[in-house]
Design brief:
The protein is an alpha/beta fold and 122 residues long. 16% of the residues lie in helices and 37% in strands. It has 2 helices and 8 strands, in the order E-H-E-E-E-E-H-E-E-E. The strands form 2 sheets. A 4-stranded mixed β-sheet has the order 1-4-3-2, with helices on one face.
Length: 122
């Protein structure tokens, strides 16, 4: 069982946020209909894998002190971090070793003002 089942990252500017996350993770987010006054873009996933989305709606506003999630930084966290600033974000905490058996983490501000964590073994 996974601790996370689904996540939603609130955004103020849907297209800007989508470009940011697609750029830093080198992925394509899938837009989905989710109501007349909201927009959603879903992380790629297969089967029952944990996934989540960017969401633009009045009830979900970005904030640096909101819930913090840690996204998978891939095989080498440095590769994702290398794209953050060019995509419009800012690195808050650089790649930092937690412990060798746990791996590394980093924190960044996304283009919407959220603090997002990243984790990788390398």
């Amino acid at each position: 069982m996974h601790a996370i089942h689904w996540f939603e990252i609130p955004v103020a500017d849907f297209e800007r946020a989508r470009r940011f996350y697609e750029t830093i993770f080198a992925i394509e987010l899938k837009p989905e209909a989710c109501g007349p006054d909201s927009r959603m873009a879903i992380w790629p996933h297969a089967g029952e894998a944990v996934s989540g989305c960017l969401i633009e709606m009045a009830q979900a506003r970005p904030h640096k002190d909101g819930v913090r999630i840690y996204l998978n930084g891939g095989d080498d966290l440095g590769q994702v971090l290398a794209r953050v600033e060019a995509a419009g974000g800012m690195i808050v905490t650089p790649k930092t070793l937690i412990r060798p058996e746990i791996g590394y983490f980093a924190l960044l501000f996304d283009t919407e003002g959220n603090v997002i964590g990243l984790h990788s073994m390398h």
